[in-house]
Write a structure and sequence with these properties.
Elements lengths: L1 H68 L14 E5 L5 E6 L1 E2 L10 H11 L11 H13 L13 H8 L14 H8 L4 H17 L2 H11 L6 E2 L1 H9 L8 H9 L4 H4 L5 H17 L5 H9 L6 H5 L3 H10 L11 E6 L3 H18 L7 E7 L5 E5 L18 E2 L5 H10 L7 E4 L4 E3 L3 E3 L10 E4 H6 L3 H11 L1 H10 L18 E2 L1 H12 L10 E6 L7 E2 L11 H17 L13 E6 L5 E7 L4 E7 L14 H13 L17
Parallel strand pairs: 1-5, 3-4
Antiparallel strand pairs: 1-2, 5-14, 6-7, 6-18, 8-13, 9-12, 10-11, 14-15, 16-17, 17-18
Helix pairs in contact: 1-6, 2-9, 2-11, 4-6, 4-7, 9-11, 11-12, 15-22, 16-18, 16-19, 16-21, 18-19
């Protein structure tokens, strides 16, 4: 038994010894792990503070590099490489803007406090509390972008106003024309958001804050931000949209302007007023929440949202403005770095009347889906163009202008020049001619047999009746009788400078011309035979100057035909409207004279006519020369002309046309 106990005791003691041995080894391991942790932390701390120090040194050096390269702030207020043109109508109302608009340098200290507060509320509510960069804003933007399925830097940028200025300044880079990039490509590249560019924005933003301070940075922002419709800077945008300076904008106008910063193409009031108002209301709410507006001020701003200026709201005269820019030398328009003010002959009310008339006829009398186009020109007797529409979309800009650029066959609208030649040669309106089938021998071409429309003939009729009925055979006979060369010369005298047909078909309008050229030729008749040269620019001056660089010279005194011929032709053209092919253009009690024109194959249809006040030309056709279906000059073009003239003359006193009866015998 004792032996067993001893054995058990031996085993038990051995176990305790083993346990004690394990404990000692465990105790030896704990100090080792602790020491390893201490050494690791020390190493991390050593590396960490050195890394932070190096980063701070780099940041300071990088910031200093940008700081010493930044120029005085006043040199950064304008970023445009070219100037602009602001076009005013005859009453001095701005209606069109071309080029890069800049309203002039303006300080953040001088603007309406509503605008300053709206910009800060919308773009950077902590603007006055950070030093150029807002880590909270960047992290928040990244999380929003990731949550919405975009890349971390796609969409919301989280940029402060200072960072946005850094981007506007392209981090100090200047555009180099020799870089192989266009200026537009350079600007797009500057606005790209990448991780590397975000890093570079940090020292640049710090440099901006140190160099300029908050108010100067805000001044740069207000002057350089692009706000749509060609407007660079808030002053240009305010003038463009509302016709007022940013010194005077209301809370509603301020909110709408600030809303453009997010996306001018979406929130521009000229593009979509509903979007602009919705965005403005959102910013009004931010201004209210941040204490910039009282509850009553915010409610009033929402209830009475910003309204476009008269000229901007009209959105009229785009084709006219394009025409003006084409007629002005490049060094005064597209190539200038100056800001030009152009006073023009446009009448906004007449332009609106023309646009409404065209829209009405196409909406009520042209079948849906038709691709037919139309153009209208209205001018005074002296050639001052009062309205111009170069296509069915009157608000288009930079589009093909069918009133000035389309050369189209004139058809019977050319006949007044043939009849004027006959009158000049001594033929009288009461002289009779045989309206019957006829043939002519054309050297080198054989026999030519002109035909009347629908092959209908009226026998013996007067010259006045021949024009009223638009007799082709009598017009052709007159041209051959008086001589084509004389007809050519008469057309030239009337201002038809386009190439004229050589053969006998010239009498039937085989030549091509533009609508503005033909309308001016008819204005010559209205002008008593004195040649009318169309014009739209009255004077041009540098913005801020009172003395114009250019003023239109006195009108032409060149005579196209005698006054007697012009008056006789006016009487004859009056019969076209009263009892001839142009009866659908009749204005009732108001006397009107005009001529229809339909080309061979019905590819072009015209009506050009005048009252005692205005001459208006209408062309209709397809751009690809597809024949019109069931349309002649006496149809839809005459109806468009009538609708336009009724609107134009609304409220205008009735005046008779001049007549040959007034000529002293």
């Amino acid at each position: 038994m004792a032996v067993k106990q001893t054995a058990k005791s031996g085993r038990s003691g051995g176990s305790r010894k083993v346990a004690r041995g394990k404990g000692k080894r465990s105790q030896r391991k704990l100090p080792g792990l602790w020491m390893f942790g201490r050494r690791t932390m020390a190493l991390l701390w050593s590396v960490g503070w050195r890394t932070v120090l190096i980063c701070l040194v780099i940041l300071v050096a990088w910031t200093s590099f940008y700081y010493f390269r930044l120029p005085p702030s006043e040199t950064l207020l304008e970023a445009r490489s070219r100037g602009s043109a602001t076009l005013h109508d005859k009453n001095g109302v701005a209606f069109a803007w071309r080029g890069s608009q800049f309203g002039g340098e303006i300080s953040s200290r001088d603007v309406s406090p509503f605008l300053k507060n709206a910009v800060i509320a919308a773009e950077d509510k902590r603007y006055y509390r950070h030093f150029g960069v807002s880590p909270r804003g960047i992290i928040s933007a990244i999380l929003i972008n990731l949550r919405e399925g975009r890349g971390p830097f796609q969409g919301h940028g989280g940029s402060t106003i200072t960072q946005q200025v850094a981007k506007l300044l392209c981090l100090g880079r200047q555009y180099n024309p020799d870089s192989g990039m266009s200026e537009a490509q350079f600007e797009r590249d500057c606005r790209r958001t990448t991780l590397w560019r975000k890093f570079r924005e940090i020292p640049f933003s710090f440099a901006l804050e140190i160099k300029y301070g908050k108010e100067e940075i805000l001044t740069i922002y207000l002057n350089r931000a692009y706000l749509g419709a060609g407007a660079t800077g808030f002053e240009a945008a305010s003038q463009r949209y509302f016709g007022v300076s940013i010194r005077e904008v209301s809370p509603a106008e301020s909110a709408m302007l600030a809303g453009l910063l997010a996306a001018p193409s979406i929130y521009a009031p000229t593009r979509n007023m509903a979007n602009a108002v919705a965005r403005a209301n959102l910013i009004i709410g931010l201004m209210e929440n941040q204490g910039y507006l009282s509850v009553s001020e915010a409610e009033e701003a929402r209830a009475r949202h910003a309204q476009l200026s008269t000229g901007t709201a009209a959105r009229a005269g785009s084709y006219f403005a394009d025409w003006i820019m084409e007629t002005v030398p490049d060094f005064l328009s597209t190539d200038t770095k100056e800001d030009m003010i152009m006073r023009t002959t446009l009448d906004l009310q007449i332009q609106k009347s023309v646009d409404d008339a065209l829209e009405h006829v196409f909406a009520t009398k042209v079948k849906a889906g038709s691709r037919a186009e139309a153009a209208i020109v209205v001018m005074s007797a002296d050639g001052a163009v009062r309205a111009m529409t170069g296509g069915r979309n009157p608000r288009a800009t930079g589009q093909f202008n069918r009133a000035t650029q389309a050369l189209r066959q004139t058809g019977s609208a050319f006949k007044p020049f043939v009849f004027a030649t006959a009158l000049e040669s001594g033929i009288n309106p009461s002289d009779t001619f045989l309206d019957a089938p006829v043939s002519f021998q054309v050297p080198g071409s054989g026999t030519w047999r002109p035909k009347n429309y629908k092959n209908e003939y009226d026998g013996l009729i007067t010259l006045t009746e021949a024009l009223a009925k638009s007799s082709n055979v009598i017009a052709a006979g007159l041209s051959e009788t008086v001589g084509r060369e004389r007809v050519h010369q008469t057309a030239r005298n009337f201002g038809i400078d386009s190439a004229l047909a050589k053969g006998p078909a010239i009498a039937l309008g085989a030549s091509e011309s533009t609508l503005v050229e033909m309308t001016a030729a008819y204005a010559t008749i209205m002008n008593g035979g004195n040649r009318t040269v169309p014009f739209g620019l009255v004077d041009l001056r540098l913005k801020g100057d009172s003395k114009p660089l250019f003023t239109r010279l006195a009108r032409s005194s060149e005579r196209a035909v005698s006054r007697r011929t012009a008056l006789l032709l006016t009487d004859m053209l009056r019969h076209v409207v009263e009892d001839g092919t142009g009866q659908r253009a009749s204005l009732g009690a108001r006397q009107a004279a005009g001529k229809t024109g339909t080309t061979q194959g019905a590819r072009d249809a015209w009506f050009i006519g005048f009252t005692a006040d205005y001459v208006t030309g209408v062309w209709m056709g397809y751009d690809d020369n597809t024949p019109l279906t069931g349309v002649t000059g006496g149809g839809l073009p005459a109806e468009i002309w009538k609708e336009a003239m009724l609107r134009i003359h609304d409220g205008v006193e009735l005046r008779p046309l001049p007549s040959a009866a007034t000529i002293r015998q």
